UniProtKB/TrEMBL annotation:
The chain crosses the membrane at residues 23-42. Keywords: Membrane, Transmembrane, Transmembrane helix. It comes from Pseudomonas syringae pv. coryli. This is ABC transporter permease.
């Protein structure tokens, strides 16, 4: 944000912005998703193994309802 035209040019009155795009979220969100995906598949900890083992049963339950408890009043 600071290096983009909104702050760098309009507020700080520099001649040209270092980062040319006004909305850096277009890039930062994509980079964040790639980072999350990469670190999740390269995580070899015991906690990650446990999460992977629990994923498929939860996926089946969410798609079919098999093994799910009855309706709950919120």
């Amino acid at each position: 944000m600071v290096l983009g035209p909104t702050i760098w040019v309009q507020i700080l009155h520099h001649e040209k912005a270092i980062f040319p795009y006004e909305y850096p979220a277009l890039f930062s969100i994509a980079i964040a998703f790639v980072g999350i995906w990469f670190f999740s598949i390269t995580d070899k900890s015991k906690a990650a193994e446990g999460e992977r083992a629990l994923f498929y049963p939860q996926f089946v339950r969410s798609q079919t309802g098999l093994g799910a408890s009855g309706a709950v009043s919120h």
